[in-house]
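Quick one, tokens below. Sequence please?
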């Protein structure tokens, strides 16, 4: 048996020795391959979101699984990964069992009372009963009827069917994400090695070194983003519950999810909080809710954000805005999520490349 293996290894080495040597792959084929890859990702962008979410969760949980497996030796890693996956399913199931009925009830109630809500918002914004704009005077009641008519036309003009289709797609995407998460937890390392194998051998060491630098930064970014979303949702939920704000759970979750959108998301959150404050009958409650917006923003920007995200992946706000809109145009919702980490990765890659010594040109 051992002699047979030795003979096969010797034959393999001899065969490899007879193989012709290839030239080092220059930079332009790599750039062309990257361009083709980006074009392919753009073409299949609709189906990428579950894969990215599952890969991100597997990427975040992988070090914890490794540490747990090291403590439970000789238990195989896949057994530990399956155990972590079962715990995650239980946590997600408990959260869904608790939050879904509450949010669904808020959505149903908000839908049934949408006309009254629109009327109250317009009357609150225009207490005089009319609006004068460019020499034209508009009555509040006419504006309300126009807004309701536009909403009905929007829902009956195909948008309602699109929303229903989007809901079905979201449910399917959720189940697909859970299935993919199992694969990423159990065999994430094998998938990473497969991706690294696609890189030409002469570039693998450099890519591996970059990966060692990037991995903790990106992992901290994703963990920090989840922490910020949870923090914003929980704080808003508590405050809205204390003040008995209508549709508080739905509003709190929306404010938390808006933290995924750089720059514009926090602005929309402030607008939603101010609208919730405008709907209060008590001046004290209105002032208290209005104070929530700047306090929440300051706590995230000055305390939670710098602590959990760190400064390694810091980008100038102008770069964040450009990356945000570019990602939205290129990949839609997925681009919104990946815009900042991709821009930070590009920044770190360029720093790594520019810090290397330039090889002297060969003298003629």
């Amino acid at each position: 048996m051992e002699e047979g293996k030795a003979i096969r290894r010797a034959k393999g080495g001899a065969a490899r020795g007879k193989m012709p040597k290839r030239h080092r792959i220059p930079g332009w084929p790599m750039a062309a391959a990257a361009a083709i890859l980006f074009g392919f990702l753009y073409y299949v962008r609709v189906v990428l979101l579950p894969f990215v979410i599952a890969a991100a969760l597997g990427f975040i949980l992988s070090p914890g699984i490794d540490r747990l497996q090291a403590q439970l030796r000789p238990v195989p890693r896949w057994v530990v990964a399956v155990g972590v996956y079962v715990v995650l399913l239980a946590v997600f199931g408990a959260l869904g069992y608790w939050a879904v009925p509450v949010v669904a009830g808020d959505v149903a109630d908000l839908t049934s009372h949408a006309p009254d809500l629109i009327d109250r918002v317009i009357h609150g914004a225009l207490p005089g009963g009319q609006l004068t704009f460019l020499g034209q005077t508009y009555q509040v009641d006419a504006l309300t009827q126009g807004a309701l008519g536009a909403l009905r036309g929007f829902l009956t003009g195909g948008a309602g069917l699109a929303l229903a289709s989007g809901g079905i797609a979201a449910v399917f995407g959720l189940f697909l994400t859970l299935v993919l998460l199992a694969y990423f937890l159990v065999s994430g390392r094998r998938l990473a090695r497969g991706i690294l194998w696609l890189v030409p051998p002469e570039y693998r060491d450099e890519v591996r070194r970059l990966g060692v630098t990037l991995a903790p930064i990106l992992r901290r970014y994703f963990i920090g983003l989840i922490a910020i979303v949870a923090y914003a949702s929980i704080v808003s939920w508590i405050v809205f519950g204390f003040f008995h704000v209508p549709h508080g759970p739905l509003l709190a979750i929306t404010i938390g999810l808006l933290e995924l959108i750089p720059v514009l998301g926090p602005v929309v959150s402030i607008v939603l909080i101010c609208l919730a404050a405008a709907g209060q009958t008590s001046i004290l409650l209105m002032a208290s809710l209005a104070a929530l917006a700047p306090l929440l923003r300051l706590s995230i920007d000055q305390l939670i954000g710098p602590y959990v995200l760190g400064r390694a992946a810091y980008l100038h706000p102008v770069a964040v805005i450009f990356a945000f809109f570019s990602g939205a145009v290129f990949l839609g919702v997925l681009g919104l999520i990946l815009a900042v980490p991709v821009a930070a990765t590009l920044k770190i890659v360029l720093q790594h490349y520019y810090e290397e010594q330039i090889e002297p040109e060969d003298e003629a």
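The mean pLDDT is 75. The radius of gyration is 27 Å.
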